[in-house]
Amino acid sequence: KNNVYYNSRTFFTNTSLKYNYRKWGFETKLNLEDNTYIIKNESENLSNRQFSIGNESVINYVFSTKDFITANFIYRKKPVVENYLYQKYIRTSYNSVQKNLITNELQTTRSAGLKYWHNDFENQFLINTFLNYSIESGQYFSNLNLDKELISAIYFFSPRSSSQFTHLFTLSKLVYPLRMKVNINTLFTHSNYLNIINNVERQVNLQNFNLTLGVKSAFSSRVRLENETTLGFLNYKSQVVTKNTSVRNKLTFVLIPLNNFSLVHEFYTYVPNRTEKSTFNFLDVTARYLPVKTKYSFSFSLRNLLNEKSFINTVTTDYSQMIQAIPILPFHFSLGGSYRF
Question: Which residues in 41-179 belong to E strands, given as ranges?
């Protein structure tokens, strides 16, 4: 009953200009797009043609061989044709129906960012920090706070406009007396959204903060340890207030009894919601034969030794529902090999 015929034709061109003068660098990119689409179903026959333009500019300055700073500016207008696939009502559950108010608008994005990079290769010291502020307007659907590990998710989201501030910080340092490398990563986002839900305007405020601490032993050692811990803090404010704290930990133990042969043990612990106190543990063991001067390599892995079957986590707010449903293979093994030529 919901069959849709969808046809899209796009013509685009990109032009870039790059210029360097002493310690200064300048680059600008201009893109033009002409998009025509046709959508047909049993009750409607829609067609539209839209023209969009965008620009991205980058300015960088090199302080020394170890430090440089970069500023970038982005302006983009683009059609969001996916909205026409959801013109009527959206059933988010058996008892809930949301309506999306569709307008034939271009989505406009304006963004400005500043990045500082310090790379001291001799002392193995790296600092990378990034600030970015963006404003978007125009209705669209998006996946929010999803990552590559999610297999399936449902997230209904239809903002009129949004703004977001992002701060990323990375520090990596080799502690030579301990022969260990220390990593610190932080990611902070503060977002504001104006939503239209069932013909009612609603302001949404969302804050995310992730802190990752990691240590890694020297690469040349025959016994290596790696550990990475990530703490996640989510704070959602609207008519409903939601707070969530998650913990992830990955412990890796590498043993190299012989040259070119290694045993890797990986133990994962994940607590998606500390309030519910649900903990998921996973253990993988891998044997690898990686000769340096030859073209071939082999590996043998035992996966999910603790035999976890599935992982499900649900976060519900007043405007959306996100379901993390990750089916996990039970205990299994895999054999791999490669040949380079």
Answer: 45-62, 67-79, 89-93, 96-99, 106-120, 125-137, 159-175
For residues 282 and 267, what is the distance between their CA atoms, to the nearest angstrom? Answer: 6
pTM for the model stands at 0.71
Other residues' Cβ atoms within 10 Å of the Cβ of residue 139? 19
Q: Is the pLDDT of residue 197 over 80?
A: no
Three state DSSP letters for 324-341: EEEECCCCEEEEEEEECC
d(CA 289, CA 256): 10
d(CA 245, CA 72): 33
Q: String of b and e for 164-194 (b: at least 16 CB within 10 Å)?
A: bebebbbebbeeeeeeebebebebebbbbbe
pLDDT class for 170, splitting at 50, 70, 90?
very high
Which amino acid makes up residue 179? R
DSSP state of 174: E
Local structure of 143: helix, strand or coil: coil
Name residue 174's amino acid: L
**Exposure on the CB side of residue 110, measured as CA atoms within 13 A:** 6
Whose tokens are 């043990």? That residue is 265
- Mean pLDDT throughout 90-101? 44
Q: What is the pLDDT of residues 150-164, one digit of tens each?
A: 444 444 455 667 889
